[in-house]
Automatic annotation (TrEMBL):
Name used for this protein in its record: Putative methylthioribose-1-phosphate isomerase
Species whose genome carries this gene: Methanotorris formicicus Mc-S-70
Nucleotide-binding listed as a keyword: no
Catalytic residues identified in the record: D222
NCBIfam families documented for this protein: eIF-2B_rel, PRK05720.1, salvage_mtnA
Reactions the enzyme catalyzes: 5-(methylsulfanyl)-alpha-D-ribose 1-phosphate = 5-(methylsulfanyl)-D-ribulose 1-phosphate
Length: 320
């Protein structure tokens, strides 16, 4: 794997360095966080995005609060309120607070979370690639790759390890409106590593399935409930419905830290983001002035549409 490191902790200068995903694919630039407020900004403004990456970054944000003698409770609340749907954020922050309450170093706990995320993503890839056949064309949605984690990714880890094992695969990436994470990030990652990829408009997936041009679908997840309802990037549910109709296996790849064993579907806050994400593309307005939009960032896919969930420990079949 080429050395694409989305999250870097700089021990010498006590700062967090993140790939600025807003600049991709045109520029590979880094954003330096020196305070927990900087980290909160990067999460809220999507400098960093993807559930595992958000969790790791928030953990380092708490470490920066500790290093600079900031109010730990205030830092916790600030970071917790950055984004409401991805459960890894709350998982990581609660783990940090537990370590803090026990008198442990927050920085050391953050480093453990970071290292564990790399290993977890590697295991997801090794386990999941067994579901991929030589010659498969795989559709993926949004970006569930190294950029969304610490390395490898979740859905893209499965794809990567199939590629590493010399399986001849093709990847199709949905563009993923409104922020185009598939077109900008997934296509960047895969082409950066030499994995064959093509981008399609979001509304083309059903047609390709009807033509037999997609063998499998693999997506990530921002939250999975105990009954296997999957919350992921908006558009995931539509793909799952299409996959069911066309008998295309629909896989979700996510670590156990993405599971929420306490909430029901009605308890999950689905984030609504600003209208400007839809009304503008790269600074150019595409919708008439005065026309409103809906901009839900996530949707919910019920378990009956999910073929399997690939984790770092095993493969779960919700319908068996």
């Amino acid at each position: 794997m080429k050395d694409l490191r989305p999250i870097i902790w700089d021990d010498e200068n006590n700062q967090l360095i993140l790939i600025d995903q807003r600049k991709l694919p045109h520029k590979l630039e880094y954003f330096t966080c020196k305070t927990y407020e900087d980290v909160a900004y990067t999460i809220k403004d999507m400098v960093v995005r993807g559930a595992p990456a958000i969790g790791v970054s928030a953990a380092y944000g708490m470490a920066l609060a500790e290093i600079h003698g900031a109010d730990i409770e205030k830092a916790y609340k600030t970071l917790k309120n950055t984004r409401p749907t991805a459960v890894n954020l709350f998982w990581a922050l609660n783990r940090i607070m537990d370590a803090y309450d026990k008198g442990k170093s927050i920085l050391e706990e953050a480093k453990k979370i970071h290292e564990e995320d790399i290993e977890t993503c590697r295991k997801i890839g090794e386990i999941g690639e067994k579901l991929i056949d030589d010659g498969d064309t795989i559709l993926t949605h949004c970006n569930a790759g190294a950029l969304a984690c610490s390395a490898y990714g979740t859905a893209l880890s499965v794809i990567r390890f199939a590629f590493y094992n010399n399986k001849k695969i093709q990847v199709i990436a949905d563009e993923t409106r409104p922020r185009l994470q598939g077109a900008k990030l997934t296509a960047f990652e895969l082409s950066y590593e030499g994995i064959p990829v093509k981008v399609i408009p979001d509304n083309m997936a059903g047609y390709l399935m009807s033509k037999g041009m997609i063998d499998k679908i693999i997506v990530g997840a921002d939250r999975i409930l105990s009954d296997y309802h999957v919350f992921n990037k908006i558009g995931t549910y539509s793909l799952a419905v299409l996959a069911k109709h066309h008998n295309v296996p629909f896989y979700v790849a996510a670590p156990y830290s993405t599971f929420d064993f306490e909430s029901g579907v009605e308890d999950v806050v689905v984030e609504e983001r600003g209208e400007e994400e839809v009304t503008y593309i790269d600074g150019v307005r595409i919708i008439p002035e005065g026309v409103g939009v809906y901009n839900y960032a996530f949707d919910c896919t019920p378990p009956e549409l999910v073929t399997a969930i690939i984790t770092e420990k095993d493969i779960i079949y919700p319908n068996e």
